[in-house]
Amino acid sequence: MSKRPPTKVAAREEKPTDRPALLLLGDVADTTWRMFIPTIGMMVLGLAADMTYESTPMLTFAGVIVGAAIAVWLVWLQIKRLRSS
Question: Average of pLDDT values for 55-70?
Answer without folding.
Answer: 96
